[in-house]
Amino acid sequence: KYSIPIDLLGFEFEVLTATENQVSKPDDGVYVNGLFLEGCRWCADTGSLAESHSKILYSKLPILWLKPNRRSDFTIASTYTCPVYKTSARRGTLSTTGHSTNYVMSVELPSENNPRQWINRGVALLCQLND
Q1: What does DSSP say about strands 41-43 and 48-50: parallel, antiparallel, or unpaired?
Q2: Pairing of strands 64-70, 48-50
Q3: Which of 12, 47, 6 is nearest to 29 (CA)?
Q4: Sign of CA dihedral 36, 61, 109, 28
Q5: What local confidence, expressed as pLDDT, does residue 131 receive?
């Protein structure tokens, strides 16, 4: 379909406003549903990260669209590079790549605040919550 060299390929990320029932298969990429934000929440009004509501530890992230594209074609925006973990235990054994076995990937999420704010709060995306 495309002929982009693998070393120039990357993912752009878009948080959708549509619900599960309103989306169909994307032409390119994949939709991811069921991720949870820890340390902040998603504000649908601004389309970016926002402070958590009082006493709310986790909030559900709307559907995330991973769009493959040439990295040089990415749009530059104010984002926070958010780590994605399998569980809330942000530890695991180190793999040969130097990452924890609990680490999945990093996702660029829109933010109106300085990324340092989210780093200090330990903001991360989780694939599952503790029982």
Answers
A1: antiparallel
A2: unpaired
A3: 12
A4: positive
A5: 60
